[in-house]
Description:
Layout: E1 2-7, E2 10-15, E3 19-23, E4 32-35, E5 38-43, E6 46-49, E7 57-76, E8 81-99
Antiparallel strand pairs: 1-2, 1-5, 3-8, 4-7, 5-6, 7-8
Amino acid sequence: MLAVVKIAGQQFKVQKDQTLYVPHIAGNTGDKVEFSDVLMVDGENGLVAGTSVKAVVKAEIVGQVKGDKVIAFKMKRRKGFRKKHGHRTHFTQIKVNEIA
């Protein structure tokens, strides 16, 4: 069974027992999470999309992680201007338990 679900403004294609990284979701490790904004389901009844989808994706939070460091370096030549700015994006690792 396959589903397309909207999580934090982004669309993800998920299957049962799949582990994926999504934008930061509040919660602790081991918490159960439900995503009701399912856009499409491909299962035993065929392909169902649009407003007629009545499925819910149930997942479990595996952990909170940080992404790779991104550095923005600005410089103007011959002026002595240098600015270094960096950040690490926060992600949540989830494991899909069920598509119901």
